[in-house]
Amino acid sequence: MGHIKQHAEMDVDGAMLVEGMPGVGLVGKIATDHLVEEFDMELYGTVHCDSLAPISVYHEGERELLPPVRIYAAPDEDLVALQSDIPVNAAAVSEFADCLVGWLTDEDITPVFLSGLPAEKSGVPELFGISTGDAGGLLEELDIDLPPENGVVSGPTGAFLNEAGEVGLDGVGLVVQSNERFPDPEAARVLIEHGIGPLTGIEVDISELVDRAEEIRKQKEKLAEKMRQAKDEESSKAQPLRMYQ
């Protein structure tokens, strides 16, 4: 049975969560990793599901081993982040979505789910928003564009959105045009500047994403390669519905 193990006493009731599962262009992960670092967010809890890979991760300059899927919080900003260092296999998606959405509901947290849309970009990547529950009003207030065509969101992010819709949880999905083959810091910047920032009401310094774009691409390339090799169910992805017709 999936559960979230709390590691620190922090009040996250009523906060907004930004979800950073690996997917197309690693846009969600790059954006979420940036937020965790920028706001020096603290470890709030770890996610445990029987079907998640039973591995531990360690970080540069730190001795502590951690599970690969974690939740960080910045209570002063009413901000929570879901961070994952691994793709989630298809067998774990349903249990993971049920566990996470149940916790979000219990804590009255509004999720912001992130996904990349494979596209040949020209200029600034386009961003649009979708929603579950009554969260569509948030997108309307901020003039975040409607989807330009029918489409689907797959992988863990798609499962999260589906579960949120099933239980009536207010949630937002942000979809941004992304490079399908390589890490895309520019698309992650658009997510933060035009989506996450306005939705959460926080100001985020994105200069690091701009100045270190090439370095970030190189750092994330190994994970991006793993995502390219993974099954579609393991990679969060938005794509036109015609792909299924």
From TrEMBL:
Ranges of compositional bias, category Basic and acidic residues: 221-236
SUPFAM superfamilies linked to this entry: Cgl1923-like
Region (Disordered): 221-245
Annotated Pfam families: PAC2
Superkingdom of the source species: Archaea
Organism: Haloarchaeobius iranensis
Species classification: Archaea, Methanobacteriati, Methanobacteriota, Stenosarchaea group, Halobacteria
Protein name: Proteasome assembly chaperone family protein
